Amino acid sequence: MTASIDRLTAELRRCRGGDEIAARRLYANAGRAMELVALACTNDRADAQDVVQAALLRVLETPIERVDAVREALPWLLKITRHVALNHRRTDQRRCARERTALLGINHSPQNENPPEELMPAIAALELDHREIIILRHFIGLTWTQIGETLGITDRAGAARHRVALEQMRQTMHKIRTVEPHQC
Fold it and tell me: Is residue 73 located within the same domain as residue 118?
């Protein structure tokens, strides 16, 4: 363990070593960022919370040698959260498809809740790759290097996705603002 590790990484190592107080501090410091990543993937707050719990359990099951190799905890935790969220979403999509098939022609689609934030409709309209970039950069505040490590892409790829995402959000927000009020 080097002297230059950040506080969150130290908490991660103590947590994985069995320190319950460190686990609580780890969640207090990284839980919100993890939930935002999960929300970007699932578009459902309850599912996002479930994903964070599953990701934390996965962290606790990670061999201690792998935890000791982690250089920076937050991108590593967010990467795990993202993988758990994507698996959760795929599982949920398969379950919904099976249920629709079982209902023989009755279309059922989950209700989309409209978050109160003005930008959430524009963020939700983005493709997953772009939505993740916006969440990681603007709501969690990761650097391009951290984003690259979290998503497994280069810094430049992250910046390029960010530019595309911002342009798509601008277009969506323009459409939302220029749509005439619904007439009965």
Answer: no
Encoding tokens for residue 42? 């699932």
3-state helix, strand, coil in the chain (%, to 5): 75, 0, 25
pLDDT at residue 4 is higher than 70: no
- Cα separation of 69 and 77, whole Å? 13
Residues 121, 90, single domain; the answer is no
| CB distance 45 to 116 below 8 Å | no
Domain that holds residue 154: 114-184
Asked whether residue 95 carries a pLDDT value surpassing 80, the answer given is no
pTM: 0.60
Task: Identify whether residues 130 and 182 lie together within a single domain.
Answer: yes
Phi/psi zone of residue 33: left (φ > 0), alpha (ψ -120 to 50 degrees), beta? alpha
- The total domain count for the chain is 2
| Contact (Cβ atoms closer than 8 angstroms) between residue 26 and residue 15 | yes
